[in-house]
Write a sequence for this structure.
């Protein structure tokens, strides 16, 4: 009896394996397990058998059907995955066709440097202050302790505009007038940076532009010292340029700070590079800003922003920043 | 200011390696721009005497020179210069000499003739700028002598220093030496010049009067006789040459020498040409004239200071240039030597006005030391001796000098400003070597400022000196803890958000300069009333932009000329204009302009939509408009809550033609200040319905002049509260839609908050929407 079903299984196995597609497999499944199948027919006749025989045959039939089901399942999986493979193959795409470069826009290198500096000082607890680019003579010079007749005020360095009294209104020559505006508008303590566009009466060349950008920091609080200035510059230097950079201050002169200094930075073993100017806010400037120099002390430091962009990207001509050649704008 | 180490050493025994001294000068605030070793390259260069010259047989540009280099034997040299004659003394770089440019001199053949060394030009051995011919030495030279010895050049170090405007004292050798001595804690001393005097007292020979005391603080004159104009000794010429001055003759050179050494310029007059031997110091009378030393007739103004003679005729422009009528010459027998202290602003004005800026005027402008004059006069005569004979006494007239008050310096203030812990004794020890006489009181120090430091008048000035000499680098670095919260303002954050959004839309940020040329605003279709630069360097930079459009259009044109097209640019920046009402400063606003080149008007609307999303602006209208410079039928005004915040559309073709841009250009222009003044950026949670929704699609045929947003508004109105979402999903033109009309297809999603909508409810809205649109816009529903 077993032999009969073994033979059936053997035949069925052959047929299942020969099935070419899911449709013929489905047909075969009906043939092998459906109402008219050998095993279903045999099951129907079980009632005519003795209990012993019935049990024996029943178990053989169940075993046979289970095996048939397994074989069919394996074959179906095989055919299905083959079908999926074919479908996937037919969907093949060359993604490099779509890789045509575009794209996000680009932030101007000056903006990138500007925002990087803002973020750095925000991390140190500073706010960001702004002021007008067309300034009055008082905020740009007078309040900053530039005496009348100071060479910086003359027409060789400063661009004036036709507005109000002659030589009363100008294109700000530095971001320092924002210091005065901040003092006028805010109560100390002040911890703020002032980035912005500035102007000089200069002919454009590789290192000069009539328009460029500066950033400066102003701190006014009780008991601020020159040591605080040196320490803050050191912190800024290592934060912006890297841990192994160092800074130094050298005596210098600016009308609006005293003591004044130039600050240099260097990579250990490298050459000192002059970066900017700094100093303790001059008592006359504090007074011009409406503050009592006996109560408040402060420092300020500033430097050119464009130069940092040039340094970072090894750009050798300042004019390139403002020429707006597409090949330049999309590089950074 | 340049200084020689050997010169500094005449006043202080300066020690140390050259580079260390350089660092010390920098730390003193006298930034070293350059250090030059003098005489370094003269090793191996000797004096040679030209014996004879003959042409090179095979070369036109070379001749053969035979010289005697000291051993009496003729030595053959091939030379490319032809400016010497037999008997001349010339510098010879002998075999083995390394030239300043690194070349080593060897014996070699030039076109078949041996050359045993090289004859040198001044430039080749760094003695001047002359490249053209061989340097011809003086007749007194001797062949075989090392050139350095023959010229009296000692090996020396030249420091080129950058002197800040508050340090007039450092524009002299003694000023630099004084600082360096203080740093090195070594003695500093100005030796007393030795002169012998004879004859009548000066007061019997000449008279001087200061008529305008606000011009001249001190006017001093002495008289000497017996000067003969000739070349200065070589050592003196070498020194002033090293410091950048050209030797002229003994009197001029000594004047320059004293100025460089002590900081005091001087002037000499041929006393016999000075009417009545009388000097009158006063402001010029408007229109008065003088012929100056350079032979130029100069018209003076009442702001120029002059020295006039007894007939009241100008004989010199104060501190700037002498007159030629009293110039000393070979015939001069009696010389009046004048040294003065001039009011700095007077000299600054006159020298600038006349374009006569000199080493002397630069020193007067910053303020000379009125107390160095006696020493400087004696030094002048000492350097000219023994040939001159000096009359005793001096005429010394006083005008207005700025008062120098004693400055009270609080020890507590010093330490509070600097972050130091100095005591009175330490401060006194710092101040004394730089000439600040200080007396300690109980809490304070009383400081007398030296006459050579006119910059110092406040306590803070003295504190700066203390810091400088103490050493900036010795002050302990500390970092104050900020008491404010570090953050961007709302506007600054929004500006960054706008930038990021535009970048996300694929736009590149440009940064043109804010200057325009005359006519460029007009070319862009804008009013010509831009703020003008009063003193532009070039016309292209004479108008301030009142819009970002011209600058960006120029950027497109520039790129197109380099075959770069299809650009998508934006700029955020200030624009300036004359205000409506009088105010202290012009109107200055922040604008955003984006230009998309090529046919990108749809994309520019998408850029605006992206900004609306990013800034969470809840409501706006695009209203067809034709602002100047824009395409009149392809532009909308952007309105939010009744305020115009900008324009959207295309640039007018006529404008593009003027800017030489050949592509179509889509433009978005936003007044950022206006936009950000409208409440935005915060959206509140709105619960959404959990019930099923129903969609209805409606396509209408409408006239071209009816905007889709009007139809959309009408649908919104009719669908009312049940409208969950609406969008325009198709626009179609052409048959079967009739000419001059187009089809607008909207999808409306209806949904109630509290129930599932019935078919009847949906049908009602559907019907009402159709009816309203058809009626209001003469539209026709398309099936």
């Amino acid at each position: 009896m077993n032999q009969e079903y073994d033979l059936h299984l053997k035949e069925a196995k052959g047929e299942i394996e020969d099935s070419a597609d899911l449709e013929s497999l489905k047909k075969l499944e009906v043939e092998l397990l459906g109402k008219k199948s050998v095993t279903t027919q045999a099951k129907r006749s079980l009632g005519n058998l003795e209990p012993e025989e019935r049990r024996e045959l029943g178990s053989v039939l169940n075993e046979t059907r289970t095996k048939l089901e397994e074989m069919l399942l394996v074959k179906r999986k095989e055919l299905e995955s083959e079908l999926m493979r074919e479908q996937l193959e037919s969907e093949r795409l060359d993604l490099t066709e779509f890789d045509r470069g575009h794209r996000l826009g680009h932030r101007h290198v000056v903006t990138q440097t500007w925002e990087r500096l803002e973020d750095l000082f925000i991390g140190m607890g500073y706010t960001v202050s702004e002021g007008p680019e067309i300034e009055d003579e008082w905020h740009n010079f007078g309040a900053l302790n530039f005496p009348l007749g100071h060479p910086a005020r003359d027409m060789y360095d400063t661009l004036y505009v036709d507005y109000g009294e002659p030589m009363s209104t100008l294109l700000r020559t530095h971001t320092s007038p924002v210091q005065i505006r901040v003092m006028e508008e805010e109560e100390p303590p002040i911890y703020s940076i002032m980035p912005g566009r500035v102007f000089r009466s200069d002919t454009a060349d590789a290192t000069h532009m009539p328009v460029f950008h500066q950033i400066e920091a102003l701190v006014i609080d009780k008991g601020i010292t020159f040591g605080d200035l040196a320490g803050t510059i050191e912190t800024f230097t290592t934060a912006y340029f890297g841990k192994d950079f160092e800074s130094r201050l050298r005596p210098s002169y600016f009308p609006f700070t005293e003591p004044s200094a130039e600050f240099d930075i260097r990579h250990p073993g490298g050459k000192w590079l002059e970066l900017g100017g700094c100093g303790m806010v001059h008592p006359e400037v504090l007074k011009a800003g409406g503050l009592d120099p006996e109560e408040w002390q402060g420092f300020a430091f500033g430097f050119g922003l464009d130069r940092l962009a040039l340094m970072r990207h090894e750009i050798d001509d300042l004019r390139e920043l403002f020429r707006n050649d597409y090949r330049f704008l999309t590089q950074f | 200011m340049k200084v020689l180490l050997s010169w500094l050493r005449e006043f202080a025994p300066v020690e140390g390696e050259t580079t260390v001294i350089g660092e010390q000068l920098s730390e003193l605030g006298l930034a070293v721009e350059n250090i030059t070793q003098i005489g370094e390259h003269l090793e191996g260069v000797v004096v040679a005497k030209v014996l004879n010259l003959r042409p090179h047989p095979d070369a036109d540009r070379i001749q053969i020179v035979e010289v005697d280099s000291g051993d009496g034997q003729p030595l053959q040299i091939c030379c490319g210069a032809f400016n010497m004659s037999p008997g001349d003394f010339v510098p010879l770089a002998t075999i083995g000499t390394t030239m300043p440019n690194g070349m080593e001199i060897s014996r070699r053949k030039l076109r078949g003739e041996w050359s045993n060394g090289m004859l040198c030009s001044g430039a080749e051995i760094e003695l001047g700028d002359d490249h053209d011919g061989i340097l011809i030495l003086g007749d007194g030279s001797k062949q075989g002598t090392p050139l350095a010895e023959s010229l009296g050049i000692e090996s020396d170090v030249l420091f080129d220093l950058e002197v800040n405007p508050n340090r007039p004292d450092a524009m002299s050798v003694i000023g630099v030496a004084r600082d360096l001595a203080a740093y090195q804690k070594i003695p500093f001393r100005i030796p007393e010049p030795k002169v012998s005097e004879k004859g009548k007292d000066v007061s019997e020979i000449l008279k001087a009067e200061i008529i305008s005391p606000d011009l001249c603080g001190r006017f001093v004159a002495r008289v000497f006789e017996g000067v003969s104009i000739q070349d200065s000794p070589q050592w003196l010429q070498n020194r002033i040459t090293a410091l950048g001055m050209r030797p002229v003759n003994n009197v001029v050179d000594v004047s320059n020498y004293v100025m460089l050494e002590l900081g005091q310029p001087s002037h000499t007059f041929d006393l016999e040409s000075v009417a009545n031997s009388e000097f009158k110091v006063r402001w010029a009378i408007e229109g008065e004239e003088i012929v100056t030393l350079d032979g130029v007739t100069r018209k003076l103004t009442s702001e120029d200071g002059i020295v006039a003679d007894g007939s009241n005729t100008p004989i010199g422009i104060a501190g700037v240039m002498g007159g030629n009528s009293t110039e000393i010459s070979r015939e001069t027998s009696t010389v009046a030597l004048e040294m003065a202290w001039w009011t700095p602003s007077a000299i600054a004005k006159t020298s600038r006005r006349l374009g006569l800026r000199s080493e002397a005027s630069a020193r007067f402008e910053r303020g000379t030391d009125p107390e160095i004059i006696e020493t400087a006069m004696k030094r002048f005569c000492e350097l000219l001796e023994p040939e001159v004979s000096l009359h005793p006494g001096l005429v010394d007239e006083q005008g207005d000098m700025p008062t120098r008050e004693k400055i009270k310096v609080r020890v507590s203030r010093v330490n509070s400003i600097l972050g130091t812990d100095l005591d009175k004794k330490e401060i006194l020890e710092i101040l004394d070597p730089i000439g600040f006489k200080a007396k300690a009181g109980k809490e304070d120090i009383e400081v007398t400022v030296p006459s050579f430091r006119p910059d110092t008048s406040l306590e803070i000035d003295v504190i700066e000196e203390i810091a400088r000499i103490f050493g900036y680098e010795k002050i302990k670095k500390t970092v104050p803890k900020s008491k404010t919260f570090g953050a961007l303002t709302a506007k600054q954050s929004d500006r960054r958000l706008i930038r990021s959004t535009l970048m996300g839309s694929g736009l590149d940020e440009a940064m043109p300069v804010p200057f325009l040329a005359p006519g460029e605003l007009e070319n862009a279709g804008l009013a010509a009333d831009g703020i003008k630069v009063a003193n532009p360097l070039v016309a292209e930079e004479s108008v301030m932009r009142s819009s970002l459009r011209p600058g960006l259009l120029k950027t497109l044109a520039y790129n197109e000329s380099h075959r770069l097209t299809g650009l998508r640019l934006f700029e955020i920046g200030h624009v300036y204009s004359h205000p409506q009402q009088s105010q202290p400063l012009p109107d200055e606003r922040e604008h955003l302009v984006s230009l998309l080149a090529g046919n990108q008007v749809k994309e520019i609307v998408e850029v605006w939509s992206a900004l609306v999303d990013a800034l969470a602006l809840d409501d706006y209208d695009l209203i067809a408009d034709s602002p100047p410079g824009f395409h009149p039928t392809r532009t909308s005004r952007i309105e939010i809550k009744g305020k115009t915040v900008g324009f959207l559309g295309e640039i007018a073709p006529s404008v593009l033609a003027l800017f030489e841009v050949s592509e179509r250009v889509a433009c978005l222009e936003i007044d950022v200040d206006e936009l950000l003044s409208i409440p935005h950026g915060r959206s509140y949670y709105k619960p959404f319905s959990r019930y099923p929704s129903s969609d209805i699609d409606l396509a209408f045929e409408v006239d071209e002049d009816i905007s889709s947003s009007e139809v959309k508004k009408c649908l919104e109105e009719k669908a009312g509260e049940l409208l969950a979402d609406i969008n325009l999903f198709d626009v179609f033109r052409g048959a079967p839609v009739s000419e001059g009309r187009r089809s607008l297809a909207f999808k409306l999603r209806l949904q109630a908050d509290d129930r599932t909508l019935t078919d009847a409810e949906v049908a009602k809205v559907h019907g009402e929407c159709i009816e309203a649109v058809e009626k209001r816009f003469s539209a026709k529903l398309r099936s």
Q: What stands out?
A: Chain A has twelve helices and nine strands. Residues 142 and 148 of chain A are 8 Å apart (CA to CA).
